[in-house]
Amino acid sequence: MKLTNRAKQIDNSPMTVAERLYIPAIATGLGITIKHFFKKKATINYPEEQRPFSSIFRGLHVLKRDEQGRERCTACGLCAVACPAEAISMTAAERKPGEEKLYREEKYAAVYEINMLRCIFCGLCEEACPKAAIFLQPDKIAPAFVDREQVIFGKDRLVEKMDDRATTGIQKYTGVKS
Amino acid sequence: MDPLIVNALIILSIFGITLLIATYSTWAERKVAGYIQDRLGPNRAGWGGLMQPLADAGKMFFKEDFIPAHANKWLFIFGPSLAMLTACMASAVIPFGDSFIVGENIVLVQAIEVNIGILYVFGVVSLGVYGLMIGGWASNNKFSLLGAVRAASQNISYELAMGLSIIAIILMSGSLSLRTIVEGQHGGNWNILYQPLGFIIFLTCAFAECNRTPFDLPECETELIGGYHTEYSSMKLGFYLFAEYINMFASSAVTACLFFGGFNYPGMDAVQNQLISSLGEATGHNIATAIGIAVMFAKILFGIFFFMWVRWTLPRFRYDQLMNLGWKGLIPAAILNVILTGAGILLEMRWLSWVAVLIVIAIAVIQASASQKKELRAQRA
């Protein structure tokens, strides 16, 4: 099977004098390495220079609010079912009168937790969600943690703040801007 | 001034320069390695990573200094010291420049001017084997011992060819003094023009003597864990590694002296005359000498760069290949070179050493054109 065009045919015939001297081969090799000496470097100096994320990058989760600031999630559990790593768990609760400003529908997630040790960032939760509530942000890396206490991300860390809304592609699903 | 003090000052400054260049060779090695591999190399510590050697040294001093329980303690300490000592000694007889006129005195830019200079270098270089051998033996570790034995036999094998290749140079200059050899190359008569074969042999042997790639078998980590310095840690390991860089500096300096005319450069007489006529006898001469020293160091630095360049180009030899090359390739070639040079001196044809090169090139060309490479069959469909 031919994978690339770079494969070289091996030649097992006896070497000529020029080849056995190795000096032409060594000179060629030195020429190749010195060419690389002057080539443009591939290095990116990380903290100062940053490579742009790939367009299909899936980063830290966010639970979206709608345009009036109500949480979109209705705790239907489809994301938890879709999750192959079983990282998502939630507890549903019923909306009380007077909480219409907080939750979009009658049911909402009182507890919504993602175990970041289990999450594989596959994006199936995002696809499963019928309410366009959960997204994997294309521009935020999930933060590092050093302690198992910090592993489970609750609503305090997942639900977006109204003054700092995630710019993720909700309009792709809803046609509504963020 | 007392000539003893002057000598001491010159020795100290050459010693200091040697250490400084060796220190920054460790930085340059990583920089060159990076650039050849399309990376940047160290660039965090200081400007362009220039503080890196200091950071490395600091790290090495603070590492645990471990001596294995069954090692011979004194020899274990003595090994790296000896490696360092012999490495530092070699640069004592190298003429880094012509001379300075200070008042009435003429001060040579050389620590010791002895008429057996090159012999001294060889004596010191062959002492370097002891550092490796003692270190490997005292560790009481079979891998270290194997590495040390490999180092010793490699150094001895290549020292023979190296000595033989030098004989041709000595024949041509008629002196063992490095200064006389350098001055004999005045006016563009660089030895490399007359001794191409000798140069290639000498260069190969210099690589082997310095234990540099492709001859770095003594410290082959895939076979010997770390070779003769497997058991070493902290600054003792640092000494071994540092001695390698000093050796590189010394052998680059010797190569520059023997084959590239040392502090000579084309057109140096015109420069010197110009300087003397415009600035006066003493000042003009001194500035001309300073230019000569700069030229010498440029040659040395290029030599060190070449060591690094080769390191990132060639793979390591197998041990039997190494021995084959040394005994069956370089030594006969060196003897042939000596014979040709001797005949050349007898017949007053200084270029005679090129005959060997031309014959080899002719054979290579003829054989390459005669032997049709067999048609290649595909190994895999």
Automatic annotation (TrEMBL), chain A:
Its EC number is 7.1.1.-. PROSITE patterns: 4FE4S_FER_1 (PS00198), 4FE4S_FER_2 (PS51379). It catalyses: a quinone + NADH + 5 H(+)(in) = a quinol + NAD(+) + 4 H(+)(out). Pfam families: Fer4_7. The keyword Iron-sulfur applies. [4Fe-4S] cluster 1 binds at residues 73, 76, 79, 129. NDH-1 is composed of 14 different subunits. Subunits NuoA, H, J, K, L, M, N constitute the membrane sector of the complex. GO terms for cellular component: plasma membrane. Belongs to the complex I 23 kDa subunit family. GO terms for molecular function: 4 iron, 4 sulfur cluster binding; iron ion binding; NADH dehydrogenase (quinone) (non-electrogenic) activity; quinone binding. This is NADH-quinone oxidoreductase subunit I. [4Fe-4S] cluster 2 binds at residues 83, 119, 122, 125. Its cofactor is [4Fe-4S] cluster. Residues 64-93, 110-139 form the 4Fe-4S ferredoxin-type domain. It is found in: Cell membrane. InterPro entries: 4Fe4S_Fe-S-bd, 4Fe4S_Fe_S_CS, NADH_quinone_OxRdtase_chainI.
